[in-house]
Design brief:
Blueprint lengths: L2 H15 L4 H8 L3 H8 L7 H11 L3 H4 L23
Helix pairs in contact: 2-3
Length: 88
């Protein structure tokens, strides 16, 4: 699995546990639904601060949100704090 697949699964699981949807997360981050979806599907990159805010909003640690990254097939940092886009 790529880091993006792991991140998508972790976010989906945490939203599901709380009965929340992508649109709720998008709103919490001040993003449009399309922008948030694009980040989840690798069309654009999450900024580190967005992932930190998302973890805080969900009431979980950042490490919980990124759990499994160490085992990812692909992980390379982007510029300016972006989490690099994975192969979609």
């Amino acid at each position: 699995m790529t880091y993006l697949e792991i991140l998508r699964a972790n976010i989906g699981a945490e939203l599901g546990r709380r009965g929340l949807h992508q649109k709720d997360a998008a709103r919490a981050l001040g993003l449009s639904n399309a922008t948030f979806s694009g980040k989840l599907h690798g069309r654009s990159a999450f900024k580190l601060v967005e992932l930190m805010r998302l973890a805080a909003w969900l009431g979980i640690s950042f490490s919980r949100l990124t759990e499994g990254f160490d085992a990812a097939d692909e992980l390379s940092p982007g510029a300016d704090g972006d989490v690099a886009q994975g192969a979609a």
